[in-house]
Request: fold
Amino acid sequence: MVDEAESGLIARAQAGDQRAFTALVRHYQDRLFRFILRLTGNRDEALDLTQESFLKAHQALARWRPEASFRSWLFRIAHNTTLDLLRRRACIEFVSFAECPGGEAEPAFPDAAPQPDQRLADRQSVELLGRTLQQLPVEQREILLLRELEEMSYSEIAATLGIAEGTVKSRLARARSAAIAGYQGLTGELRDD
Amino acid sequence: MTEHTAPKHTPDLPTLSAYLDGELDHHAEQRVAAHLAACPLCAARFAELQALSAGFKALPMASLGFDLAGVIEGRLAAAPRSAAARPERRWFSQWPLAIGAAASIAAGVFMGSALVAGRAAEVPRMAALRVFDIMPPGSLCIGLESCYRKESTQ
Reply:
């Protein structure tokens, strides 16, 4: 679950070595930020929440045990921290961030580095997919992010979200189905069958 | 979304989705692969899932744009060391403290009992009470005539 170098860093960080903890932050900072940004749709909030998540992780580090995946543990903290904010914003049930005060329909990614893709090569398709993702409920969005972007296994997703693996399987299928329907709705190719 | 009602379309959407993720066991994986090879409808559905997955990987990858680790390092250095960061204390690590405290209490009790048991503990008669004597300390009298011996000159 955790490679040797990372477990060494975690052990040192648990013993109070702040430089080791900083190295862990450096390793995960962009990934955690990306995950939170896709959930909140707001860069400033995502920055704050990323920082808050790492500080919470530092406080709780003594309780982490090697049996658990460190990445799942860290993403779980980020997930809880972000959901707390979304609940406070009362936007968790909103379908679209465009309808949410303070939310952005299309988050800005100034330092984006798009990768070419065989199937959705053109920029418009990627933008539409980004919009589709933002329009999904948070529950579906986060499970897609953990699987598709973080490439977590079902067991890791289950540990991150605190749900059963069977629920991961069904929720992920529903999220994919909703994403396909949403994308086809935006492109006008939605079928009725 | 396509709903497969015919019995031959055994892989439902969760199964196809799990097949895409490589989360099925070997036998289930073989069954789905065989079905996909024979069923254009499910094959098309599976192609949609594959395209979606590839599309997500093409999404822009946002980054912080600065080193958050440095900021956190500064905040941790400024803050007092948290209890969580300290190594966990075991019960036996408290022994020296407990022994020291017990020794201090025992020494206090011993010294206190020595004072009470000895003569030194007797409360001396307070000199201040002497003011109620007929003759105050130093035989000084501040006004009563009886204090003074009257020498009869008569």
Observations:
- Chain B is about 45% helix and 0% strand.
